[in-house]
Write a structure and sequence with these properties.
This protein is an alpha/beta fold and about 400 residues long. It has a domain of about 200 residues: Rossmann fold. About 35% of the residues lie in helices and about 15% in strands. It has a six-stranded mixed sheet with strand order 4-5-13-10-11-12, sandwiched between helices. A four-stranded parallel sheet has the order 8-7-6-9, sandwiched between helices. A three-stranded antiparallel sheet has the order 2-1-3, with no helix packed on it. It is globular.
Length: about 400
């Protein structure tokens, strides 16, 4: 019989064919090629855990340990990730015509992005399963996070990223001792290189959704929003979707909250935001398709959105459909303008991907899809400090003794 405080992980389930897999062996995709999802004994947990039991726990994502896959706490690798701020944006909201606008600011995570969540849980579970070498392609931030957590756990890491990825993420991988390789191409090209290394050299593939536990770390954003709002959920959650793991994870978290009997209200409408220069999910949504086709020649300043064919496309599109949400694309110029506007109005320096959610909120309000009194949460996935090149800073230079010039 499972006990309160221990993982209630039961098995892994294929997201397409439904086949069950042993959760206590290293697993990648199902034989049918689809991602695996962690399933928990939620009936047993509902009898032993209440939301009130969480209140005295430390403010990290590990407060949800019964809903996470690590069975033995000695395997947990952590920097204290989780419970990031959920802050009101009254001045920005007034400019958008949204009276209840909030920001879930993942820039406060260790390594500066929400990728820390997936890395914490993924590396911890890898250690528990005896995996000592992990490999992944990345657009930058995931590689940086996994490198840091792997170093802390003593796990070897191979990271392959496009040569155009943000330079600061290269330095993060390097300082953490990862083996870093650059490819003159996109993340799909990096993925092909990782695939060969996995096949030929015995690395374990921790690419997006090719192992089942990164998703479990990301779902804690949804659990936190529920707690931070006092046991309820907002009307709308707007999420910047490249690989889309966070969107899928939030949707999964909502389902688990319902199964536990903790929440029985309407689901937040989930919005996937992409860049106009790479929008396979938006194109599939607009066409009424259940899966996406690969986007050719993707290009955007929001590098984390430059994913031509997300492995989780079916899961993203299903989450959007099941919650009455939508998918929307924004231009690079729009998101960069919103990044600067948010800084001026609220003092927050968010990443380009996070700024895409502001641009999306503006478009959705202008179209009437968002009502003025909708409670809306924007997901900022990382700190703008990781993208210094997106903001021009060329102030006047004064000589000693000079006065402040007129504006």
């Amino acid at each position: 019989m499972t006990r309160t405080g221990t993982s209630h992980l039961a098995y892994l389930e294929c997201s397409v064919c439904g086949e069950r897999h042993d959760a206590d062996r290293p697993q990648n995709l199902c034989a049918c090629g689809a991602p695996l999802l962690a399933r928990y004994d939620l009936l047993a947990l509902a009898d032993s855990l209440t939301p009130g039991d969480l209140s005295g726990r430390p403010p990290s994502l590990w407060r949800y340990r019964e809903l996470l896959p690590v069975r033995d706490p000695q395997h947990i690798t952590t920097f204290g990730e989780g419970m990031t701020p959920l802050i009101g944006l009254p001045r920005l909201g007034a400019s958008l015509g949204l009276s209840r606008l909030m920001l879930k600011d993942e820039g406060a995570c260790p390594t500066g992005t929400f990728k820390a969540r997936g890395a914490a849980v993924g590396i911890s579970r890898a250690c528990e399963l005896g995996i000592g070498r992990v490999a992944m392609p990345t657009n930058g931030n995931a590689g940086a996070a996994w490198s840091a957590y792997a170093a802390r756990a003593g796990v070897d890491t191979l990271v392959v990223m496009p040569i155009d990825a943000p330079e600061v993420t290269r330095r993060e991988c390097t300082v953490a001792g990862a083996r870093l390789l650059l490819v003159d191409g996109l993340i799909g090209d990096a993925g092909a290189i990782v695939g060969r290394a996995v096949r030929d050299d015995g690395w374990f593939d921790v690419s997006t959704l090719k192992e089942p536990y990164r998703l479990e770390g990301k779902k804690t954003m949804g659990l936190e929003i529920f707690e931070q709002l006092g046991g309820r959920l907002p009307d709308v959650i707007i999420y910047p979707a490249g690989g889309g793991v966070g969107l899928i994870g939030i949707h999964k978290a909502i389902g688990e909250l319902r199964a536990l009997g903790w929440y029985d209200g309407p689901s937040p409408r989930l919005v996937a935001v992409q860049a106009e220069g790479c929008a396979p999910i938006v194109r599939a949504y607009d066409a009424g398709e259940s899966q996406a086709t690969a986007w050719e020649g993707g290009e955007t300043v929001a590098f984390g959105l430059n994913v031509a064919k997300p492995l989780g496309d079916r899961l993203m599109l299903a989450a959007i459909a099941e919650t009455g949400g939508c998918a929307i694309a924004v231009a690079d110029g729009q998101l960069l303008e919103e990044m600067r506007g948010l800084g001026r109005l609220e003092g927050a320096f968010i990443c380009p991907e996070g700024a895409a959610t502001v641009a999306a909120a503006r478009k959705l309000r202008e179209s009437g899809w968002l009502a003025p009194d909708d409670e809306v949460v924007l997901l900022n996935t990382g700190s703008g400090l990781k993208y210094p090149e997106t903001v021009d800073a060329d102030p006047p230079i004064l000589q000693p003794g000079e006065s402040v010039p007129a504006e």
